[in-house]
Specification:
Number of strands of chain A: 10
Helix content of chain A: 25-40%
Largest interface: A-B, 33 and 32 residues
Largest sheet of chain A: 6 strands, mixed
Distance between the termini of chain A: 23 Å
Radius of gyration of chain A: 17 Å
Oligomer: homodimer
Shape of chain A: globular
Bound molecules: adenosine-5'-triphosphate, magnesium ion
Strand order of the largest sheet of chain A: 6-7-8-3-9-10
Number of helices of chain A: 7
Structural class of chain A: alpha/beta
Strand content of chain A: 25-35%
């Protein structure tokens, strides 16, 4: 369902070129649970942003369910982002002046889902990540790990078919991390595709395949013994 | 050198009260290396912000080197923040429109250190955290882990006597994390006091004492076998 072919991403900062991705090819089939690991700066978020239709590669191709993303209209891309993909950003990207509840409802609002259903979905997602008693707090009234969990709830509440999570447990203690990973596993068991970036080996063990990055390329790709 | 007595921090959000700290007492002597652990939302950052003179408790007392912080003037507090303490924020707090180099130089600028010395110190700190080839990048031109390392370099470049780091390796792979912890250990061996919040047990093992939070209070306080 996801097919990346020879992606490159080159940034020109001043007169220096940074090759954030230097030829990445990857296939992810429907229902897979893939972890993406690799050193800081090796290109993981850059690839995730392209996968999430938030950025375009410099060269190379991205096919999502047969659609060539490079040729998709802005409307088609917006529809994919709003309806197909639940994206958890490495730096959360919450709206600072709105509450946890409103932040979680936002993707559903864009999708045209009615107020009552949005509210129920958002409360369910916030409860699932342990934030039932923080729903009216704004981001600056929440701890780092709580903000991270709001970002996770926002990705889940919209019932996406693909979850893309960029270091979703970076600010969480082990118990909260395990609760989040249990949610991802349940969703994956129900057929949802999960791609998650992590730098913690214990977290990667919840997935079924580990793709490792190095210097903007894929260095290894290994299927884990079935859990 | 650091003495916290019965600290509380209470937030009123709407008509609900949140007791972020519910009576915290703690002593940290000069040259110690303490890890602070505990579940997400248990009060660790709240205490760190009070320790770093960035916030005040609701009740309780904080003595730093004999000075009662509650009675210190704003000038005295600014001097402590700029000259004594190197603080690494959980969410980095980098200035978005300035380069990594300028971000790292900023505390030294406030301290009145000359341009040449600031530049040399900043470059040395950025090299030490592996960012020698990213010094002119702005934060949005850096990966999450690179931004985190700029925040660490900024805390170190000013030669503080106390380092307070709030989850400094949350976005780093194991190799980068070990490099950062080796730096903290070297500084501690040279006499610098280190207090760091982490949720990773492997990181806590680089320290000499682990203080665990639970629901706004200290739950346990254990000295590790000497490394
Ligand atoms: N301005 C605020 N108003 C209301 N509640 C707040 C405010 N700031 C923090 N809190 C609450 O205080 C509690 C402690 O927050 P703190 O940031 O200290 O937690 P933490 O231990 O650092 O968590 P994490 O590991 O997730 O970073 C949290 O439950 C949080 O929701
Ligand atoms: N706008 C930009 N201009 C220049 N270089 C950039 C830009 N954005 C990212 N980079 C560089 O691209 C490289 C890859 O960044 P990316 O964010 O994908 O890394 P990452 O693997 O997610 O790292 P981390 O684990 O630290 O989050 C980094 O070396 C970074 O400095
Ligand atoms: Mg990243
Ligand atoms: Mg915190």
């Amino acid at each position: 369902m996801i097919s990346l072919k020879n992606l490159t991403k080159v940034y020109a900062t001043g007169d220096v070129e940074v090759r954030a991705l230097a030829g990445v090819s990857l296939e992810i089939t429907e229902g897979e649970f893939v972890s993406i690991m690799g050193p800081s700066g090796s290109g993981k978020s850059t690839m995730m942003n392209i996968l999430g239709c938030l950025d375009r590669p410099t060269t190379g191709e991205y096919f999502l369910d047969g659609l060539n993303i490079a040729q998709a209209s802005d409307n088609q891309l917006a529809e994919i982002r709003n309806q197909k993909i639940g994206f958890v950003f490495q730096s959360f990207n919450l709206l600072p002046r709105t509450t946890a509840l409103e932040n979680v409802e936002l993707p559903m609002l864009y999708r045209g889902i009615g107020a009552k259903e949005r509210r129920e979905s958002a409360l369910r997602a916030l409860n699932a990540v342990g934030l039932g008693n923080r729903v009216h707090h704004k981001p600056n009234e929440l701890s780092g790990g709580q903000q991270q969990r709001v970002a996770i709830a926002r990705a889940l509440a919209n019932n996406p078919v693909i979850i893309m999570a960029d270091e979703p447990t970076g600010n969480l203690d082990s118990k909260s991390s395990e609760e989040i990973m249990a949610i991802f596993q349940q969703l994956n068991d129900a057929g949802i595709t999960v791609a998650l970036v992590t730098h913690e080996p214990d977290i990667a063990l919840f997935s079924k395949r580990i793709v490792r990055f190095k210097d903007g390329q894929i260095d290894s790709d290994e299927t884990l013994a079935q859990r």
